[in-house]
From TrEMBL:
It comes from Micromonospora mirobrigensis. Keywords: Methyltransferase, S-adenosyl-L-methionine, Transferase. One of its GO terms (biological process) is methylation. Residues 41-137 form the Methyltransferase domain. The keyword Cytoplasm does not apply. SUPFAM superfamilies: S-adenosyl-L-methionine-dependent methyltransferases. One of its GO terms (molecular function) is methyltransferase activity. Pfam families: Methyltransf_25. This is Methyltransferase domain-containing protein.
Amino acid sequence: MARVTRLGGVEQTRTLTPRTAVIWAVLAAELDRRAGERLTVLDVGGGTGGFAVPLAEAGHQVTVVDASPDALAALTRRAAEAGVADRVRAVQGDGDALGGLVEPAAVDLVLCHSVLEVVDDPAPVVAALAAALRPGGAASVLVAGRAAAVLGRAMNGHLDTAAALAADPAGAAGPRDTLRRRYDADGATALLTAAGLTVEEIHGVRVLADLLPAAVADGQPAALVELERALAARPPYRDLAAQLHLFARRPA
Ligand SMILES: C[S@@+](CC[C@H](N)C(=O)[O-])C[C@H]1O[C@@H](n2cnc3c(N)ncnc32)[C@H](O)[C@@H]1O
């Protein structure tokens, strides 16, 4: 479902999905607030550039730090195809070693999406991304939701795994789990607050999308995106989402 959307006054045609619509809405509000500025953006664990490339297309200067050379190669190709190679820098490195990779207090917007649940220790990563932000700069952080993982496993008949996940302090389901941890809104807020960031907004991403039969999700994509957006900020729906998106700021 391609739609014309605006990022800080720049029109783009983009496909909004339950995975991306709520996050883009939050980012668009920040970019609108700073319309006319060329922002310095850092995407930690930015992978193949699903967010980095559209941000560069909107005129911003984006550095992607990622541990995977393959992901960075795909990012570089994607940026070249979009004609924004000069505004996207790919840096191979570890999120918790950002200090040596990017200048401190030099970034307007940091993205850290789907990374804190896989790194060895999330606290130094969050401290590093907070240190990279200028005072007044913003962080967009996406983490795996804990409640959705418990419900999802139970609904698929894996009651033992659901029970293990619910009981585990980190919200992981043993050594075969692909994620090391999952979050609820309070836990994720505490992590960002401990690094000196002020959490301004929390949204649920994919409140419903993973629960619906494919025929419904595929058959009514626009209605699903609208419903996801309507429920995203409203507990208890928010707290049952597959992912939680936190928008935070380094105090000015
Ligand atoms: C699930 S992907 C998310 C990609 C992108 N942020 C997105 O939301 O589409 C996780 C990314 O984090 C990267 N990654 C994992 N651990 C990392 C670390 N310690 N430092 C930097 N990047 C890391 C992986 O290589 C991968 O590209």
